[in-house]
UniProtKB/TrEMBL annotation:
The lineage of its organism: Bacteria, Pseudomonadati, Pseudomonadota, Gammaproteobacteria, Thiotrichales. It comes from the Bacteria. It comes from Leucothrix pacifica. This is Uncharacterized protein. The chain crosses the membrane at residues 17-34, 40-59, 280-301. Keywords: Membrane, Transmembrane, Transmembrane helix.
């Protein structure tokens, strides 16, 4: 019997709203109540905001759907996400978070969230316009990971399941790592000879990149760049030539060459994605919400 994580879509949706409101109220409360509580009001506001982020991330995991349910409902060819389970867990450590911040500075990514869970939240919203975004879940986890819908299989069955997904897929997104499981998955992708459908998420650091490159070059028909590119993503041309994707302000713009070689155009992406992540309008909406919340808090404060 395969253990599956706790899921509650209704509660997850409610907690998401609560988390979002806490983020907005905390951010708006920094300038409004910054001088309160003997000048410590801004600390309280930041704590509220950070708790809101934690609740929002928890709710995203609690409210997730299973890959089986998603595939039953959405018959389009899936986008498959593969990665090292250890790398995914490390995202929630201080070391992992610090690595992502360094990557953001190095790669000059302004609006592209490079922290693992943040990337996956954005990918999930972006890719739902294209097809079901799925992955194999980490055995034993109490909550499903953020982003791709998970399926849970035994250690004896995971290779058969991922091969099934690879053959059904329209695209595969691989987060570069250093495990034997990833090596086996890359070997299968090379055998399938669909290089243009593969997108690599590169490691944050030069050291991690070199570890990945060392074994990946034994598998790939053409070698990866000798040094870590100033990029977060890398595609392959039809002849397996690797091409780093120049970072742009918005994620879709960064990935547009990859999407184009898979016959996906900007018009194929839902407007809701651009409003949420990839347009100047989301800045205006965000600022407007913060101003409105700040004014609301200010007038409430005047009543007491």
């Amino acid at each position: 019997m395969i253990e599956t994580p706790c899921r509650n879509p209704a509660l997850g949706k409610s907690l998401k709203i609560i988390g979002f409101l806490m983020i907005v109220l905390g951010a708006a409360g920094i300038p409004v109540f910054g001088s309160a509580l003997d000048g410590l009001g801004w600390i309280v506001a930041i704590v509220i905001m950070m708790l809101g982020v934690a609740i929002y991330l928890y709710a995203s995991r609690l409210g997730s759907v299973s890959a089986g349910d998603l595939l039953a409902k959405d018959k389009r060819a899936p986008i498959v996400f593969v990665r090292s389970f250890q790398d995914e867990q490390d995202d929630y450590s201080l070391t992992g978070y610090n690595k992502s911040l360094k990557s953001m500075d190095t790669d000059a990514l302004s609006n592209n969230n490079v922290w693992g869970p943040g990337v996956q939240l954005q990918f999930n919203t972006l890719l739902e316009s294209i097809g079901p975004y799925i992955a194999i879940g980490r055995p034993g986890e109490n909550l499903a990971g953020i982003g791709a819908a998970r399926v849970y299989v035994s250690d004896d069955d995971w290779q058969d399941k991922i091969l099934e997904y690879f053959h059904r897929s329209q695209m595969v997104i691989m987060r570069a790592g250093k495990t034997q499981g990833l090596r086996w998955e890359l070997e299968q992708l090379v055998e399938m000879q669909k290089p243009q459908s593969i997108l690599l998420i590169l490691p944050h650091t030069q050291a991690d990149y070199q570890e990945f490159r060392q074994w990946a070059n034994d598998v790939l028909p053409k070698p990866l760049p000798a040094d870590k590119p100033d990029a977060r993503f890398l595609l392959f041309r039809q002849d397996w030539t690797p091409q780093p994707l120049t970072p742009q302000r918005f994620l879709f713009n960064t990935l547009e060459p990859f999407f184009k070689q898979n016959q996906i155009e900007r018009k194929d992406i839902r407007l809701s994605y651009f409003l949420k992540y990839d347009s100047w309008l989301n800045y205006l909406v965000g600022i407007s919400v913060l101003i409105a919340a700040g004014l609301g808090l200010y007038f409430i404060a005047q009543l007491f």
